[in-house]
Each structure stands twice: as structure tokens, then as C-alpha cells.
Amino acid sequence: MYYFTFNGESNIPAFFSSVMLLAASGLLFLIHLQYKRSAPDSYTRHWFILGCIFLFMAIDENTQVHERVADFVRPRLATDLSGMLHWAWVVPYSVLTLAVVAYFLRFVLRLPTYTRNLILVSGALFVTGALGLEFFEGYLYKRYGIDHLYNRILYCLEELLEMSGVALFIYTLLGHLARYGTQIVLAPEDSEA
């Protein structure tokens, strides 16, 4: 059962999330290469930086970097706000998320309307799951323990929001590539593509 629980680490749902984040990273790097060749001034570095961010998130999902951050941050907090900051990694990651939003907002707003709207929705889904629900999970954890029904519902909802957000983001990136005529051909080197 552990290998399929949404609240576990180093199991099948965590691996699936890592693979999805890695796929999103690869697509972002592909878009970066496309823009670098065809329109070098159209925010090419933004696509590359986003690819790096998603690569880090894939690594973090698989290796639990955020847990190590929590171990460092938790003893330095003056209060955990009745458990809302029990998962202390949310403090630095929230600050980083706000910085990323501030940096990328103009870039995202300049994207085609359909792409922009889907990216905003996918980002809202992911951040609500990854950060937003962690505050409530910490509160309920401190009050009732990790295996209480409330926490089980919340961490399933959290993972559902995260996975849905990344899946929608991948769909959006594939659609963005298709709209600009990008073709991905997987063929042996000696074949005619």
C-alpha cells in the first residue's frame, strides 16, 4: 500500500510526479531552443530559466530537498502559527514562488491568449496544491496526526492539484509548440527524416 499512497515519498505517485515535471522541463528547453534559433530576442532566457526551475522541481520531488530545507528552517521560526508552518519549507518556497511570479509575469502576459490563460490556470492549480494546502495540512497534522481522515483527504487533494497543474502545463506547452509548427521526430541517425 505504501508504494501507492499519495502522502509517501520514494513511491510510484512521487515517481510519476517527478517524471511529469521532468517532461515539462524538457519541453521548456525545447521551446527555448526553438525561440533561440527563430527569434532570439523573444524572451528566450525565460523559457530556459523555466526549464531549469522545472528540472529542480523534478529533482526536489524525487530527492525531497524541501524536507531538508524544512529541517533547517523549522528551528529558526519564532512560531509555527498553530501548525500552519509545521512544514517549514513553505516559508522559503513561498518567497521563491512570489519572486518567480514577479519575474515571469510580464513574460507570461505577452504570450498568446490561449497559452497565457492555460499557463495561469495550471500555475494556480499547482501552487494551490503544492503550497496552499500545506499550510492546512500542517495545522491538521499538529491537531490530529498524520493519519487522520482530514489529512488523508487534504494530501490526496494536494497531489491531485499538483499533478493536474503539471499535466495541464504539459498540454499547454505541446499546444504552444504545435501552433508554431514544431515537429519532434524520433528516428535513427541514418534514416531520412
Kindly summarize this structure in a few lines.
It contains 6 helices and no strands. It is mostly helical and 193 residues long.
Polypeptide structure, described:
With 193 residues, the chain is an all-alpha fold. 72% of the residues lie in helices and 0% in strands. It has helices at 12-38, 44-63, 65-73, 90-109, 113-144, 149-179. Helix 1 (12-38) packs antiparallel against helix 2 (44-63). It is globular, with a radius of gyration of 19 Å. The chain starts with 11 loop residues before the first helix and ends in a 14-residue tail after the last helix. The model has no long low-confidence stretch (mean pLDDT 89).
Structural class: mainly alpha
Percent helix, as a range, is: over 70%
What Rg do the Cα atoms give?
A: 19 Å
Poorly predicted segments: none
- Counted beta strands: 0
How many separate domains? 1
| Strand coverage percent | under 5%
- General form: globular
Q: Could you report the average pLDDT, rounded to the nearest whole number?
A: 89
Biggest sheet features = none
Q: Give the terminus-to-terminus CA distance.
A: 45 Å
Q: Which sequence of SSEs, written as H and E, runs from N to C?
A: HHHHHH
Protein name: Multidrug transporter
Keywords: Membrane, Transmembrane, Transmembrane helix
Transmembrane segments: 12-31, 43-59, 84-105, 117-140, 152-174
Organism: Pontibacter amylolyticus
